[in-house]
């Protein structure tokens, strides 16, 4: 077995590979950019080598630096993780020529499957179902529009070398095809150095289901069941699960066999994923093959009991698979939520900054797993993708897996940057998701303008009121215990409160009992027991004997509670103070409608207007690039441009003014 391997990646996946290598007794080498000098994967590895400045094109994407790091440290093999150079055939070939083993497929398979146009032709030759479309390279915008109209809208415009939602657009008209083609080319050129584009028919009400395959150098190939990846936003996966709640045994077997047939056609070695789009009638079509480890591979590991990173390492070393297709188990149900640094209130735009608090839920072997590359006090950088962690759960049934995920999300604390935890919790109780009758359009349908946790009704709001009262009573007791009070005039907490919540008043009675408080609210009695201490972001205990876990923080004079995706702000005061509060003037927010504000931190790559220009609603105003994604800002109303307040090439902060308008209609 290898004695030392280098991980040519960063963040969560680098840490993930290091864990398996350590388990196998293999020493590891981390590489890092200057921005990642204090990163978790650098600390975890046995050795670490700095490979350049923060931008990935100057560090993680520079083959010469990776190869030099291998030679300097004596690493015998390289695991590429996913992203960066993981599907770069030239990198694989150069490693082999340098006598370094690539832990992944061979260059010929990577070239064949990494090119979406070539892979579709290969799939057709292997008798794998394929989507109708145009597979040759498209030379111009006009040609793209003509082809799209000929196929029939809606169509999918895709970069041949694309992946991870980059270089991909859905077009429903000639105008959308024109704009989509240009955006796809720009993103593909910037992210992959390859701006070739192709177009295919967009399957309506589709589900995205993929088959995990695994092959060795001795001709053995198996499939490890499927993963359902239909919960997506902007074509990027949000929740993955295994198996799929949609497939029957016959369809599962047919998809698995076609995936293996395609892998066999290119003599595939290592772990890979064949992605299919599945229609509502269970018809399925080849989408693409990812010749690398997938972000969502843990759910497959949970249901099969296999360590895919270990299998990749063993295959790269020349070992045979130690099991056959009939020996692969399918045990229970697994789910994964991608925890990203993004702001649901701003339509999920990236959020960067320092992790002031980072407390993941407790890992339980075989039940709860957290794959992460960050730590409390670390920084989420604008240079890389926004993933903070992957939260994975496993249970005997799908319903139990959902319940376990909801509990784990309740216990996941992130402060300092915005995250999508509350949104994930909301999805876990979405009726369509719970029933399994969803498709890739679920998020766009239910959350077209983003997600606001404060607008999600709680399933039992009385318990939020009760917990808020218990927390406040605890604070009052601390105030009463402060020394130095004048004898005979000591502060004595009242048991009667008014809880103000979203304009409503709730009268409560809170009296201390052993281990907690007895709360009376709306004629009902509640015993709230908890060992919560001041400053702890997790408030857990029991209410009338039933366990609960809520997050809490002080926001001014209010208590902000989070539970099952809901956010509630409570002010707990006396009845007299509540009467005074009703007389307080409301602060009016400043009118910022005359300005175009940056919705996220990022690089201003284009200003599409000039001072004095008349702009119609929907017209492009500016383009901001953040975390490798291109974001187009458009006019919400007809207006006239007054002043340009920023310049292309400038790094923008959140809410920084870009354009001032003279008037709007």
Describe this structure as you would to a colleague.
Strands 14-13-10-11-12-15-22-20 form an eight-stranded antiparallel beta sheet, sandwiched between helices. An eight-stranded antiparallel β-barrel has the order 24-25-26-27-28-29-30-31. The chain contains 17 helices and 39 strands. It has six domains: 100 residues, Rossmann fold, CATH 3.40.50; 70 residues, 2-Layer Sandwich (Dna Ligase, domain 1), CATH 3.30.1490; 122 residues, D-amino Acid Aminotransferase, Chain A, domain 1, CATH 3.30.470.20; 120 residues, D-amino Acid Aminotransferase, Chain A, domain 1, CATH 3.30.470; 121 residues, Glycoprotein, Type 4 Pilin (2-Layer Sandwich), CATH 3.30.700.30; 70 residues, Beta Barrel (OB fold (Dihydrolipoamide Acetyltransferase, E2P)). It is globular and about 90 Å long. With 665 residues, the chain is of the alpha+beta class. Strand 35 and strand 36 form a beta hairpin.
